[in-house]
Amino acid sequence: MTMNPLRLLMLIVLSALFSGCSSIGEALKTAGDFVTGSGVVRTSLDQITVVAKADANKTSATAVDVVFIYDEKVPDLLPKDAADWFAQRDELHANLWKYLDIASIEVPPAYIVDAVTLPKRYSTAIKVIAYANYLNKKGRKVIDLTTFKHAQLTLEAKTVDFAESTEGKS
């Protein structure tokens, strides 16, 4: 079920007013932080942690790309598999650079990346997905992080687990 953007905005404004915002202007600013002009909800993601287990990716270092998308049409243009993403990444970035940012890291087994460096405009992304360059096909799925606030990717032997992190929450 999708919600009418105007109704969503009204709910956010009313919620903000009843939760202590001192003015409608402040409530609208709060609403504007999460809804784009076209009514598309933005991500609330603000932290990504990557934990690589000792046997991660068959004990190989793993390249992980987190892709921040700023246009509604771009997700349909991106590969549905990490192997295809890494094969086409440079060309896709060259053609779509205005509409996406990539945070790239390489994680060795038994290592933790406490906070992936996010691009400057990350908070305006409408979709955030991750690709892990896994040897096993099970680990190559597209990981949607859009709805998370503090995402944690756990690199396992054959696949990637992902969840809302309980670490670092205020």
Structural write-up:
There is one protein chain. By secondary structure, the chain is an alpha+beta fold. It has two domains: 1-41, no CATH class; 47-164, Immunoglobulin-like (Sandwich), CATH 2.60.40.4150. It has three helices and eight strands, in the order ααββαββββββ. The protein has helices at residues 5-18, 24-32, 82-96; strands at 47-52, 62-69, 100-107, 111-113, 127-132, 143-144, 150-155, 160-164. The strands form two sheets. The chain has a four-stranded mixed beta sheet, with no helix packed on it. A four-stranded antiparallel beta sheet has the order 3-2-5-6, with helices on one face. Strand 7 and strand 8 (160-164) form a beta hairpin. Helix 1 (5-18) crosses helix 2. It is globular and about 40 Å long.
Descriptive tags:
about 170 residues; alpha+beta; Immunoglobulin-like; 2 domains; four-stranded mixed sheet; four-stranded antiparallel sheet; 8 strands
Short structural description:
This protein has helices spanning 5-18, 24-32, 82-96; strands at residues 47-52, 62-69, 100-107, 111-113, 127-132, 143-144, 150-155, 160-164. The protein has 170 residues and is of the alpha+beta class. The chain is globular.
